[in-house]
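JOB MANIFEST
job_type = single_chain_structure
chain_count = 1
residues = 186
[input]
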Amino acid sequence: MSVDAIYKDIETRMKKAVENFKTEISRLRTGRATPAILDGVRVEYYGAQVPLNQVANIAIPDASLIVIQPWDKTIIGEIERAIKKSGLGLNPQSDGNVIRLPIPPLSDERRRELVKIVKKFAEDARIAVRNIRRDGMEKVKRMEKDKEISEDERKRAEEKIQEITDKYIDEINKILDSKEREILEE
């Protein structure tokens, strides 16, 4: 394995860690309507558990409302049950054609709780990135030990790996700050 291959590998793995972090926090209900809130909701449809977005259109007419329009009207009841069981704390309202999901405003206590959760997700993502850095550093040291690269090349490689790590840690921190502001604004 070459040093460049190590860079590519850690870059790819760190990108995945950041994407996982984004996915985790997108599922949190922040008091603002977003289709991502419903990503984990699965609906019973012809005997199979299907993601909600595969059986209905999901629209956001305003910041405090999600409108779900199923393609097959017969599953409205199933969609309502799935949303109630999802643990999102949302109360679906149906008129037989569409389901409206009002997003209630968050209490100050719930906002603080959400910020703690987001910070934990961010820390988990940073830990994942640091573990990937450690793997890369170990591979470079092993290459030096096996006489595949010189000591100077190892030092340059370690600096480059640290640069890549800093870039992704910084990205995680920016996402965290943005999500924190979103949660705390009324």
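[summary]
The mean pLDDT is 88.
The chain has four helices and six strands.
exit_status = 0
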